[in-house]
Description:
Blueprint: E1 8-14, E2 19-25, H1 27-34, H2 53-70
Antiparallel strand pairs: 1-2
Amino acid sequence: xxxxxxxxxxVTYAEDRQQLIVQAVDPATLASSVAGKLEMPxxxxxxxxxxDDEFARRLGVAMLNLIALGxxxxxxxxxxxxxxxxDHDDPAEPII
Length: 96
């Protein structure tokens, strides 16, 4: 397995091209840019440290919702279930 240095992931919506752009960036170069900005911590203990399909789906929905806060035009393309879809989850539980 190839070893990589740790990196941060940036997801950007380019409205004019209708593209989601994903970039891997050195976290140190972002530190001053993200200081004091909206932060959405996701506590892995709250999902029993299970990074499964449902976690990935909920993370994706959360990312799209966050993008839509700043670029509401993307909402016209979104057709996602906001709540967990696992039978054993509480339907009232908020998305990540």
